Amino acid sequence: MTPIILVDGMLGKLSKWLRILGIKTLYAGTLTDNEIERELEKHSQTVLLTRDRELYRHAISMGYSALFVPEAPIEDQLSFVLKRLDIEPVLDMSRTLCPLCGSKLVRVSREEVVKEVPRGVLDRYEEFYKCMNCGQVYWRGTHFYEIEKTIEKVRLIMYGKVEC
Ligand SMILES: [Zn+2]
Prior knowledge:
Residues 5-150 form the Mut7-C RNAse domain. It comes from Thermofilum adornatum. This is Mut7-C RNAse domain-containing protein. InterPro entries: Mut7-C_RNAse_dom. This protein has helices at 12-20, 33-42, 53-61, 74-85, 119-124, 142-159; strands at residues 5-8, 25-28, 47-50, 65-68, 105-108, 128-131, 137-139. It is of the alpha/beta class and 164 residues long. It has 2 domains: 5-85; 105-159, no CATH class. Helix 4 packs across helix 6. The longest helix is centred in the last third of the chain and has 18 residues, at 142-159. The mean pLDDT is 92. It binds zinc ion. Zinc ion binds at residues 98, 100-101, 103, 131, 133-134, 136.
């Protein structure tokens, strides 16, 4: 089972990438340390990712799973976390979660997003996804290839090779 991962306020970018990879992630940007501890208590599968050494030490001493994430480029942070949690980075749009809020995305037709997406985008792309919670619309555009490239880099760091 994919763990629920709690990311503290210093790791917002990391939480977005974990969600893109379909990993259930709670971004604790607005939670206090006490609230974070309560979340860890609630879900036994939860792993805390933090850049706060004190919070990390405290979580470990309480018996929770936690990783102290090094300050590094996002590719290195991602491979660090995925390796330790034994998760293979695979981009699969049917599993991708909304980078903004972490909810499920559903494939929608062009007609369904006609009011939300600029005309030029509507004409150029065919695959649209919508977040069921916050309503954000995504499409397979140029940004998508940047995402693929980053994930390839992560695979390279993790396995020393890129699978085609
Ligand atoms: Zn959303």
